[in-house]
């Protein structure tokens, strides 16, 4: 490419990257202080833009600053925005080997429904198969009470209605144990439910939160039968083998609606309703691993990484300018473009892959790749100096410097790419975050050193002859 | 030109002085493995005012959980390390702490079952071995055009010896830090090791690339002399690059926060060791090998 053509290419690329990195105008303050004067930023918040043409008003709102800024927010990992990550192991020992994959998918869907009912936005629920191990990975961003969320995800939620046989009363009095321990399953379970919701008690005795349930047609028939033969007797409701409610049947209930009263807090009632609506898990699950980061810790990590990253970049820029003079300044410019392009790739995934989720380790990988980007510049500058010393004139020294440095830049970066790939394939999520940013960073650093810095240098008068 | 290669014995001695205490420490004390490898729980709580950390340990223990340690992590936060905890117990611990000390903020929790711990260890090991092998193979291919009698495989093998040197330095120092300061290694430490491998090879390749280029230029000179010329020519670059990376790492060390501090320390040690080993070990070893072969 001719230097002028590639310069224009770089300019366009920089403008696009800059636009992608614009913050959303809603997070900007109304004004900023510049040298003691208030400068209004309100024009950046405009979301209307109407142009009168031929007596009609053309709607160009989509071109207004508020619509064009912050379209690609940085996707932060759970360690930076706060949240919970769970690895669940499914116990398939009682499932026929042929049905295990189906059971895993069913369990995944149940968990996904529970999480969605709970209103967690952007939750991720994935199933994974490792040899014979079948696992479910759950990521819940922005959760305040992480432990409660984990409990919601992991509950089996097997609901069943039990009746108390007539003989039980005598035995209970004799042994002194509460009669509820003699309750027998009726065959009416959570599988007969159509839906469940939180309501508030109307009757004088209970005004707290309750869970109202609606049975399927078949369930309604069963329920009518059971209530008919138990009039005047308790009909305890069990959840996962534990009694949660002990209502007494006053009459036969037809129509398939009932209410579970218990001493619920509204939180408990909500969770129960969610579990009942989303269904029971088809297999028992066990929490293998849980990582939760509070939102405050995440926010302070973001702040500290930003400060550290900025200071690091500024130190490098000052060093390069001090050591290499005008070359160093041009390398600094290339470094700024490099940073903008890498961040733009993180935000968009280049539109061909999902955006990169930035984690703490990911930021470390990115900062390390900055070091490698600078290294490529240092390599070429040292090479150019040598060529100049050997008496080559401007243009030839420049081209020879780049040509000679290329093999070591290529080989050293390829070995970094190999390491990043292995890390990605074998790593856990923490390590993967690091590998992805390092990989992207190294690729872009090669482009930045070879194309961007070279184009700038070629424009210097001393290298044009 | 510096005649560095004639002093190669001293470089090996210096490396040995750093590595041997580390190896001895690894042999006697091993590495202090974190919950990522052993399985267990790390619970971090923040209170409204400073509390007695022994009291925290007692309350956790009252819930039937074996406590390994309670560490004050600054600004009224405490890090409790225990055996793996069942989910319900975590809620119990939180509410009993709340009863005793008032409002509690659950800053972070990490609960790793033993199965995951064993898998992490295995994967980390496989990654280290695989990365080393791939790098030898890549170098053998990339350097296949070096003029005879030099062999591209010797370049690959010495580069890997240099990277093992750096891994040993870091692992050894962390074993010593673990024994005396209680520093634990976690998944991030493995990430750091792999990064160091990448950096070390990166550095070594730059020097080797120069040797590869200079060998046909100075056919009359011995391998040792060519190595001396090449190391001298790349010295400015090696030091400049390492210095910029070290400056960035120092910035992260000072301002990057507690969570990744030891990760950054591992990288710092590794980068310094990597620069040293690429100049003084990899090249010196290659020279020693070629001299033995009479080239």
Characterization of this structure:
With 465 residues, chain A is of the alpha+beta class. Chain A has 3 domains: 3-21 and 294-463, Multidrug efflux transporter AcrB transmembrane fold (Up-down Bundle); 27-68, no CATH class; 83-293, Gyrase A, domain 2 (2-Layer Sandwich), CATH 3.30.1360. Chain A has helices spanning 3-20, 65-68, 78-81, 100-117, 146-154, 167-175, 217-229, 266-278, 295-348, 360-389, 394-426, 429-459, and strands at residues 31-34, 37-40, 50-53, 56-59, 75-76, 83-90, 124-130, 133-141, 159-163, 184-189, 193-200, 209-215, 237-239, 242-245, 257-260, 285-293, 357-358. In chain A, strands 7-8-6-16 form a 4-stranded antiparallel beta sheet. In chain A, strands 10-9-13-14 form a 4-stranded antiparallel beta sheet, with helices on one face. In chain A, strands 11-12-15 form a 3-stranded antiparallel beta sheet. In chain A, helix 10 (360-389) packs parallel to helix 12 (429-459). Chain A is elongated, with a radius of gyration of 32 Å. The two termini of chain A are 18 Å apart. The mean pLDDT of chain A is 82. Chain B has 295 residues and is an alpha+beta fold. Chain B folds into 2 domains: 5-35 and 116-292, Multidrug efflux transporter AcrB transmembrane fold; 40-111, Alpha-Beta Plaits (2-Layer Sandwich), CATH 3.30.70. Chain B contains 9 helices and 4 strands. Chain B has a 4-stranded antiparallel beta sheet. The longest helix of chain B has 33 residues, at 223-255. Strand 16 of chain A pairs antiparallel with strand 4 (104-112) of chain B.
């Amino acid at each position: 490419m001719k230097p002028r053509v590639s310069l224009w290419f770089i300019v366009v690329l920089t403008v696009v990257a800059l636009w992608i990195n614009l913050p959303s105008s809603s997070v900007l303050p109304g004004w900023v202080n510049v040298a003691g004067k208030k400068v209004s930023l309100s024009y950046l918040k405009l979301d209307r833009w109407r142009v009168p043409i031929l007596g009609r008003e053309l709607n160009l709102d989509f071109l207004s600053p508020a619509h064009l800024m912050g379209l690609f927010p940085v996707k932060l990992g759970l360690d930076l925005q706060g949240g919970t990550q769970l690895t669940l192991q499914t116990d398939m020992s009682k499932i026929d080997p042929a049905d295990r994959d189906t059971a895993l998918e069913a369990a995944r869907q149940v968990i996904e429904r529970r999480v969605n009912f709970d209103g967690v936005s952007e939750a991720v629920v994935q199933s994974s198969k490792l040899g014979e191990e079948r696992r479910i990975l759950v990521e819940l961003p922005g959760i305040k009470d992480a432990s409660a969320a984990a409990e919601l995800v992991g509950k089996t939620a097997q609901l069943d209605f039990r009746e108390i046989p007539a003989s039980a009363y005598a035995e209970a009095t004799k042994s002194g144990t509460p009669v509820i321990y003699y309750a027998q399953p009726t065959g009416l379970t959570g599988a007969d439910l159509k839906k469940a919701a939180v309501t508030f008690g109307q009757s004088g005795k209970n005004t707290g939160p309750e869970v109202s349930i609606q049975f399927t047609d078949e369930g309604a028939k069963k329920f009518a039968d059971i209530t008919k033969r138990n009039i005047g007797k308790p009909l305890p409701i069990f959840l996962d083998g534990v009694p949660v409610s002990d209502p007494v049947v006053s009459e036969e209930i037809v129509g398939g609606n009932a209410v579970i009263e218990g001493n619920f807090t509204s939180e408990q009632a909500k969770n129960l309703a969610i579990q009942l609506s989303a269904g029971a898990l088809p297999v028992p699950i066990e929490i293998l691993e849980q990582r939760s980061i509070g939102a405050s810790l995440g926010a302070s990590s973001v702040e500290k990484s930003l400060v550290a990253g900025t200071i690091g970049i500024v130190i490098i820029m000052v060093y390069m300018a001090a050591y290499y003079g005008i070359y160093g300044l041009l390398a600094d410019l290339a470094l700024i473009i490099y940073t903008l392009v890498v961040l733009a790739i993180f935000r968009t995934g280049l539109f061909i892959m999902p955006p990169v989720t930035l984690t703490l380790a990911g930021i470390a990988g990115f900062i390390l790749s900055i070091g490698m980007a600078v290294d490529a510049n240092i390599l070429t500058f040292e090479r150019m100096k040598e060529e100049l010393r050997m008496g080559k004139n401007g243009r030839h020294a420049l081209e020879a410097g780049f040509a000679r440095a290329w093999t070591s830049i290529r080989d050293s970066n390829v070995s970094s790419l190999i390491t990043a790939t292995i890390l990605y394939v074998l790593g856990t999520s923490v390590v993967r975050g690091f590998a992805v940013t390092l990989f992207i960073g190294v690729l872009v650093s090669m482009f930045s050193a070879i194309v961007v810095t070279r184009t700038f240098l070629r424009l210097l008068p001393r290298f044009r002859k | 030109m510096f005649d560095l290669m004639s002093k190669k014995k001293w470089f090996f001695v210096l490396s040995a002085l750093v590595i041997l205490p580390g190896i001895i420490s690894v042999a006697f004390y091993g590495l202090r493995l974190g919950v990522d490898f052993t399985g267990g729980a790390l619970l971090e709580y923040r209170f409204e005012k400073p509390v007695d950390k022994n009291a925290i340990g007692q309350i956790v223990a009252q819930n039937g959980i074996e406590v390994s340690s309670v560490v004050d992590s600054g600004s009224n936060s405490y890090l409790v390390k225990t055996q793996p905890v069942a989910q319900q117990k975590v809620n119990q611990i939180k509410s009993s702490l709340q009863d005793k000390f008032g409002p509690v903020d659950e800053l972070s929790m990490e609960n790793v079952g033993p199965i995951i711990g064993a898998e992490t260890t295995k994967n980390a090991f496989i990654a280290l071995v695989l990365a080393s092998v791939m790098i030898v193979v890549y170098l053998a291919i990339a350097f296949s055009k070096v003029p005879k009698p030099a062999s591209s495989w010797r370049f690959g093998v010495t580069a890997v010896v240099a990277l093992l040197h750096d891994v040993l330095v870091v692992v050894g120092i962390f074993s010593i830090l673990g024994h005396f300061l209680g520093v634990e290694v976690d998944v991030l430490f493995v990430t750091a090791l792999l990064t160091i491998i990448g950096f070390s090879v990166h550095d070594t390749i730059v020097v080797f690339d120069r040797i590869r280029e200079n060998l046909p230029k100075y056919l009359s000179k011995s391998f040792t002399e060519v190595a001396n010329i090449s190391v001298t020519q790349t010295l400015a670059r090696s030091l400049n690059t390492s210095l910029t990376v070290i400056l960035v790492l120092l910035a992260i060390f000072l301002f990057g926060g507690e969570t990744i501090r030891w990760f950054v320390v591992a990288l710092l040690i590794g980068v310094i060791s990597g620069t040293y080993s690429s100049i003084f070990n990899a090249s010196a070893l290659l020279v020693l090998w070629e001299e033995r072969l009479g080239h």
